[in-house]
Design brief:
The structure is a single chain. The chain is an alpha/beta fold. The chain folds into 3 domains: 151 residues, Rossmann fold (3-Layer(aba) Sandwich); 169 residues, OB fold (Dihydrolipoamide Acetyltransferase, E2P); 78 residues, Helicase, Ruva Protein, domain 3. The protein contains 15 helices and 21 strands. The strands form 6 sheets. Strands 5, 6, 7, 8, 9, 10, 11 and 12 form an 8-stranded mixed beta sheet that branches. The protein has a 5-stranded parallel beta sheet with strand order 4-13-14-3-17, sandwiched between helices. The longest helix has 17 residues. The two termini are 25 Å apart. 30% of the residues are buried. The protein binds adenosine-5'-triphosphate (ATP) and magnesium ion (MG). InterPro entries: AAA+_ATPase, P-loop_NTPase, RuvB-like, RuvB-like_C, RuvBL1/2_DNA/RNA_bd_dom, TIP49_P-loop.
Length: 476
């Protein structure tokens, strides 16, 4: 096996040798997820898919179809309906669902799960599904509160001798100066509020508001007078608030029905030792009873009628939906028909398959026909060699890998021969081989060498004989 181009055996580097620390490997500490190059569906304003966009390559029909679904979800016309993504493994079904969640934005709840998550020893299957559906229904609560809002101009804690313990000092009060367009105000605040200020990591120049009744402190962002010229940073800049420092402000809070259920399901209990012990022992997941859900619904309905809250139906995404069994499917049907149902996106790569939990029902995609009938189905297509090359290039850019000449074509060829996933999986080992050989970019020879080291699923399957098995290291 050829490892490096150096002829002498003594200098041959073993495959398991630790690669020398390189600048790129230490600089990139965050893990890159398989879909981190996907930023959205990449559609034009008219909803048409450009051939490549937002990290997506090809797959125009499926992307446009998902774009329509996003529009319907945003205009709240798709609640209680289901979209089913079908297609061969590795054709971007999971990626499409993630792109939908990107397009919907952070304000619409998106609850992803995998079909097999329903099999828990602690909670019933149907309960897991019901919980996911509840987590996908958002509630936007609007309240008008008296607040002090402004840009922090001064933050001075005043210390005093602690009368109880001899050492150290405590903060007796804190002086906070707030500035708005119209004026400034100096507030003298309680030490507990100072703790909240420390927790929110507030410094001079931030825009904050303090609720008058509760003393809750919230950081809105950094005042744009302090905006820097960086192109990319995590800070959000906000303008200097208008009006007076002390004013009535409409605050918006986003929660989901799932959050409300969970908060009410865990009884607060008393302060006595037994209830504290009890809550420690009962650390497993708790089931929320239907009765509690009805109660929560009633309260929510009251809020909605008063105009305090607004219901925001979101999206439940069930990946590998063929893992659900017949009981889950019938429950899913009934959930879809309930009045407060979110949009459901399902994905599967199965063709004709037995429905799990039955012995004789064979259905398309392993999904019973009655549920299938309620779905709009979108098919993902396979990729051409060119498209595989483009995806490999995209991944290489996200992972910070460099290619020599002709390498993308070699990867695309491998991908076409086996699958796109296989080509993507080869990226990191190829980078390691290049590193071992002392190169900063991947060359075609690294990929050739990988052909000797690894085999793809198709080759492996072909190597297993008709009886299926291995004896003494040989397949037979
Ligand atoms: N059109 C595309 N553009 C860019 N990247 C893609 C595209 N399609 C797939 N990918 C990437 O290829 C990899 C495999 O895709 P994905 O996991 O979405 O496949 P899948 O259809 O969900 O497969 P499975 O049925 O096995 O779950 C992912 O890293 C994904 O981001
Ligand atoms: Mg998938």
């Amino acid at each position: 096996m050829k490892v490096t181009s150096t002829p002498s055996t003594s200098t041959t580097v073993a495959h398991n040798a630790v690669p020398p620390p390189s600048a790129s490997s230490t600089a990139r500490s965050s893990r890159i997820a398989p879909h981190s190059h996907i930023k959205g569906l990449g559609l034009t304003a008219e909803g048409l898919a450009a051939s490549d966009g937002a990290g997506f390559v090809g797959q125009a029909n499926a992307r446009e179809a998902c774009g329509v679904v996003v529009e319907l979800v945003k205009t709240r016309k798709f609640s209680g309906r289901a979209l089913l993504l079908v297609g061969a493994p590795g054709t971007g079904k999971t990626a499409l669902a993630l792109a939908i969640s990107h397009e919907l934005g952070a304000k619409v709840p998106f609850c992803p799960m995998v079909g097999s998550e329903v099999y828990s020893t602690e909670v019933k299957k149907t309960e897991v599904l019901a919980e996911a559906f509840r987590r996908a229904i958002g509630l936007r609560i609007k309240e008008t509160k008296e607040v002090y809002e402004g840009e922090v101009t001064e933050l001075t804690p005043t210390e005093a001798e602690n009368p109880l313990s001899g050492y150290g000092k405590t903060v007796s009060h804190v002086i906070v100066g707030l500035k708005t367009v119209r004026g400034t105000k100096q507030l003298r605040l309680d030490p507990t509020i100072y703790e909240a200020i420390l927790k929110e990591k507030i410094v001079v120049g931030d825009v904050i508001y303090i609720e008058q009744n509760t003393g809750a402190v919230k950081r809105v962002g950094r005042s744009d007078a302090y905006a820097s010229s960086y192109d990319l940073e995590s800070e959000t800049y906000v303008p200097l608030p208008k009006g007076d420092v002390h004013k009535r402000k409409e605050l918006v809070q986003d929660v989901t029905l799932g959050d409300l259920d969970a908060a009410n399901a865990r009884p607060q209990g008393g302060q006595d030792i037994m209830s504290v012990m009890g809550s420690l022992v009962k650390s497993g997941r708790t089931e929320v009873t239907d009765k509690l859900r009805r109660e929560v619904n009633k309260v929510v309905k009251g809020y909605v009628d008063q105009g305090v809250a607004e219901v925001v139906p979101g999206v439940v995404f069930i990946d590998e939906v063929h893992m659900l069994d017949i009981e889950c499917y019938t429950y899913l049907n009934s959930l879809l028909e309930s009045p407060m149902a979110p949009t459901v996106v399902l994905a599967t790569n199965r063709g004709h398959a037995t429905v799990r939990g039955t012995t004789d029902i064979i259905a398309p995609h392993g999904i019973p026909v009655d549920l299938l009938d309620r779905c709009v189905i979108v098919k993902t297509d396979g990729y051409s060699r060119d498209q595989i090359g483009k995806v490999v290039q995209l991944r290489a850019n996200t992972e910070g890998l460099k290619f020599g000449p002709g390498v993308v074509e070699r990867f695309a060829e491998e991908g076409e021969k086996s699958s796109m996933r296989y080509a993507l999986q080869l990226l990191t080992p190829a980078a390691i081989l290049a590193d071992i050989a002392g190169r900063s970019q991947i060359e075609a020879e690294d990929i050739n060498e990988m052909g000797e080291l690894f085999i793809d699923a198709k080759t492996s399957a072909a190597m297993i004989g008709p009886d299926g098995g291995f004896i003494g290291g040989n397949s037979f």
